[in-house]
Specification:
The chain is an alpha/beta fold. It has 15 helices and 14 strands. A hairpin with a 3-residue loop joins β9 and β10. The structure holds adenosine-5'-diphosphate. The site of adenosine-5'-diphosphate has 12 residues, from α10 and α12.
Length: 403
C-alpha cells in the first residue's frame, strides 16, 4: 500500500512516501520538506530513494499550494517516484495535540476535525497547521482516506495521580488543565523496538525512554503502557530543551511579568523560545555548538550541558522508583543519538545500582540500534533511533485496510 505521511508545521510540510507491505516490510520511496511557507524564499528539498534529489526556492503562499508542490514533486518525470497522484492509497498525518479525546490513531471525519480544532487551544502553533494540511490533502486527493496519529495518544494510559496538577480541581473540569505529554509516537516506537531488540517481553517490562532532541522528554513505560512522562499540559514542562525552560517555580512567571512589564504572550514566548540552552548559555540553542564552546572552556556552555545531564538523571531516577525498578533504558533523537558523552555521563549517575556502559561500543555508536551497556550491567541500556513516520504509516495502513 502506498502511504503518504505528512507532518505539517505552521510554516512547513515534512513528508515521507512509504510502500508498506506489512509492519516490518516496507520501502521509503521518497522524503522531503517544504520550509518557509508564506515567505518569498519557500524552499522545497525533495529526496527520492535511489536517485538524485533536488532543492528549489520559490515563493509558496499557503499550505494548499504547498501540498500541490509536494504532490508534483512525487510525480515529477525526473525526480518523482509515482506515475500519478492516484497511486497514493492513504495519507497519515502527525497531530501534536489530541488532549483526552484520542488514545489511538483514527480516520478523519467531521467529528475528528472538530476535536482537533478544540485542541488548537492547547497547541496554538501546531494544531491549526495540521488542520490546514488535512484540508490541503482533501483538495488534491478528495477520495483518499486520511488518518491522524496523535503525539499525546500514547500518554493517555497515565493514571490521574500522574496526569493531574495540584491546582484547584475546577480548572481541570472547566479548562481541561492536566498533563498530556508529547513525543508519544516516538516513545511508543522506541519502547517497543527497544524491548524487541533487548529480548524483553514488552508486556512484562519496565522501560525508560529518553527522547533528547531540540525538544526533549523522558517517559516511563510499564508493560508497554506509558505510566508517566516529563512533558505536561504543553511541551514546555519537564527538562531543559533547546529553547524551552522546562520545569521552573511557577511564581517566577508573575514576578518577571511585573518586573519586565511582559504580556502573557511575551512571557510564553520567553519560556518557549528564549530559554533552555539559548537562554542559559547565551550562546546557542544547538547542542553541537554548545559542545564546541565547552571544549574551548566556556563556563556557561558547560553549565548548560551539566544541567542537561542533571535533568535527565533526575527524571530517570524518579521513574525507576515509580516503576519499582527498570529493565531497559533507551536513548533516542538528535542529541541522544549523536552524543556518546551524554549517554555516558547520564548513566554514570546510576553506577551505584550496577549500570555499566561499554565505553568502546558507546563511543562508536550513532544512528543505529545498539545495546551500549556491558553484558554484566544490572540494567540494559540501548540506543534506538526513533521513527515516528513509520508508526504513522503502520497505523494508517491498518485503518485504511479496515475500511
Ligand atoms: P527536533 O526536536 O527538532 O526533531 P532533533 O531530534 O533533530 O530535534 O535534535 C536536534 C539536536 O540534535 C540539536 O541540538 C543538534 O545539535 C543535535 N545533533 C544533531 N546531530 C548531531 C551531531 N551529529 N552531533 C551532535 N549533536 C547533534
Amino acid at each position: 500500500m502506498i502511504i503518504l505521511v505528512i507532518n505539517c508545521g505552521s510554516s512547513s510540510i515534512k513528508y515521507q512516501l512509504f510502500d508498506m507491505k506489512n509492519d516490518n516490510e516496507y520501502n521509503v520511496l521518497a522524503k522531503g520538506i517544504l520550509e518557509k511557507i508564506g515567505l518569498p524564499d519557500t524552499k522545497l528539498k525533495h529526496n527520492p530513494t535511489g536517485k538524485e534529489g533536488f532543492s528549489r526556492v520559490s515563493p509558496i503562499a499557503d499550505h494548499k499550494l504547498g501540498m500541490q508542490v509536494v504532490m508534483e514533486a512525487l510525480i515529477d518525470p525526473v525526480y518523482g517516484v509515482l506515475k500519478s497522484f492516484n497511486d497514493i492509497q492513504a495519507v497519515g498525518h502527525r497531530i501534536v495535540q489530541g488532549a483526552d479525546f484520542f488514545d489511538k490513531s483514527v480516520l478523519v471525519d467531521d467529528d475528528v476535525l472538530e476535536k482537533i480544532g478544540i485542541c488548537c487551544d492547547f497547541a496554538p502553533l501546531h494544531n491549526p497547521a495540521h488542520l490546514l494540511g488535512i484540508a490541503a490533502v482533501k483538495e488534491v486527493l478528495p477520495d483518499v482516506p486520511q488518518i491522524v496519529t496523535f503525539d499525546t495518544a500514547f500518554h493517555q494510559t497515565m493514571e490521574p495521580k500522574a496526569y493531574m496538577y495540584a491546582l484547584p480541581y475546577e480548572y481541570y473540569e472547566k479548562y481541561h488543565v492536566r498533563r498530556y505529554g508529547a513525543h508519544g509516537t516516538s516513545h511508543l516506537f522506541v519502547s517497543h523496538k527497544g524491548a524487541e531488540f533487548a529480548g524483553l517481553d514488552i508486556n512484562n517490562s519496565r522501560i525508560i525512554t529518553c527522547h533528547i532532541g531540540n525538544g526533549s522528554s523522558v517517559t516511563a513505560v510499564k508493560n508497554g503502557k506509558c505510566v508517566d512522562t516529563s512533558m505536561g499540559f504543553t511541551p514546555l514542562e519537564g527538562m531543559i530543551m533547546g529553547t524551552r525552560c522546562g520545569n521552573i517555580d511557577a511564581s517566577i512567571l508573575p514576578y518577571l511579568m511585573k518586573k519586565e512589564n511582559m504580556t502573557p504572550d511575551e512571557a510564553t514566548a520567553m519560556m518557549n523560545k528564549k530559554s533552555g540552552f539559548i537562554g542559559l548559555s547565551g550562546l546557542s540553542s544547538d547542542c553541537r555548538d554548545l559542545c564546541g564552546f565547552r571544549e574551548q572552556g566556556n563556563e556557561r556552555a558547560k553549565l548548560t550541558l551539566d544541567k542537561l545531564v542533571l535533568d535527565i538523571t533526575k527524571l530517570i531516577g524518579g521513574y525507576i522508583a515509580e516503576m519499582n525498578g527498570v529493565d531497559l533504558i533507551c536513548f533516542t533523537a538528535g542529541i541522544a543519538e549523536n552524543n556518546a558523552w551524554l549517554r555516558r555521563d547520564v548513566m554514570a549517575n546510576f553506577a551505584y545500582m550496577g549500570i555499566k556502559i561499554d565505553n568502546e561500543v558507546n563511543d562508536a555508536t550513532r544512528g543505529i540500534d545498539r545495546i551500549i551497556s556491558t553484558p554484566d550491567s544490572s540494567v540494559k541500556v540501548a540506543l534506538i533511533p526513533t521513527d515516528e513516520e513509520l508508526v504513522i504509516a503502520r497505523d494508517t495502513k491498518h485503518i485504511a485496510e479496515s475500511l
